[in-house]
Amino acid sequence: MQHITILGATGSIGVSTLDVLARHPDKYKVHALTAHSKVEELAAQCAQFRPRRAVVGSAEAASQLASLLRAKDIRCDVSYGEAALCEVAAEADTVMAAIVGAAGLAPALAAARAGKKILLANKEALVMSGQLFMDAVHQNGAILLPIDSEHNAIFQSLPQSYARSPEGAGVAKIVLTASGGPFLSRAVETLEDVTPEQACKHPNWSMGRKISVDSATMMNKGLEVIEAHWLFGAPASQIDVVIHPQSVIHSMVSYVDGSVLAQLGNPDMRTPIAHALAFPERIESGVGQLDLTTIGTLQFEKPDFARFPCLALAFEALVAGGTSPALLNAANEVAVEAFLDRRIGFRDIDRVIARVMHENEHGAASSIEAVMAQDALARAAARTIVAGIAR
Ligand code: NAD
Ligand code: MG
Q1: pLDDT tens, 202-220?
Q2: How many whole angstroms from 60 Cα to the centroid of ligand 2?
Q3: Residue 62 is assigned to a structural domain of this protein
Q4: pTM score of the predicted model
Q5: Is any atom of ligand 1 closer than 6 Å to the C-beta of 208?
Q6: Which of 172-206 are b and which e, b meaning 16 or more Cβ less than 10 Å from the residue's Cβ?
Q7: Ligand that lies nearest to the alpha carbon of residue 204, given by its number in the listed order
Q8: What is the whole-number distance in angstroms between the Cα of residue 158 and the centre of ligand 1?
Q9: For position 329, which CATH number holds?
Q10: Whose CA is closest to atom 43 on ligand 1?
Q11: Is 56 a member of any domain?
């Protein structure tokens, strides 16, 4: 029996994870569930999965949850705050890291330091602290399995010996596929005026609001390029992005002999979640079998960096190194939130990020404290810029 903590249980990835777990009660037991503010959803999840612990974002949310659970006669230890998130991340056998944004870094790192099996959805944690995070994984014997569909596909397309001896594997390129999001073919001039509702309407995937906006700007793919760099030890020059609007090929590895290995499937996150949960075995996920004859056509094109400046900014941050990706990530989080609140326009997102990156020096990512200081500085800088353009 594997005991699992789900960080971010009420989110899109959290709910898909619980859907897979519910299919295999003989294999998995939920140790802890966490949510920021969706107390009623969390209470319903606790009633179904009976975790030993539940963690929320505030004292008020904790007392609400405790009384909801009492009313249903459910025994569960309720706590709140970052320290409690780090505790539950260090207790189970397996941790699903599915909090969105920088808030997920401390608990994901706690899981790494405790040597856990980490299923990593929270790409922002790795973008911010890449080398430090990977060091914590290796030094503590943790196992890191990617949930992001592209990275899970690459992991499946690499030989299992790759982590031990990447040199002998003959990898020429890592090819990340990208759907291109909802604005792939919309006239560029009209992007100034798109609404949060339009930006969150992804053609293929149903996801949380922040990652949906990231997909519309293609910052999501930019963050994934940085994520791939750290997960697979590939330099920026070895990572390609290809637009593939159908999201059937989830990513590919191109080898020196001309072979290309890819992982395909219907676009449903339960596939990579089930893959990582059961690895190296396979379990049913609830996702239907892929029918290529129904899909008929798969298309591919090069990304247009003028349409998607966020993708270029992310490559720039990766090449600059140090705390540059932490600057990029923090500025993006602030800008996306401002866009979702209708304080700035869609195209202002890339303008805010570019200004934060170009008006602030980055430093060495020598410690988590240095990364968090850069994150705080970038957030303050981004908020000032947002205030200047807010409408
Ligand atoms: P979501 O917004 O649906 O859910 C986020 C979860 O994090 C919620 O449970 C919320 O309660 C929790 N949370 C939010 N802010 C928090 C805070 N300050 N402290 C503690 N908890 C907090 O997001 P999602 O779409 O499930 O994405 C989660 C992560 O997985 C993101 O990093 C995203 O990039 C990544 N990811 C998501 C998908 C997808 O299909 N949704 C695919 C690949 C990667
Ligand atoms: Mg992805």
Answers
A1: 888 889 999 999 999 999 9
A2: 34
A3: yes
A4: 0.98
A5: yes
A6: ebbbbbbbbbbbbeeeeeebeebebeebbebebbe
A7: 1
A8: 27
A9: 1.10.1740.10
A10: 148
A11: yes
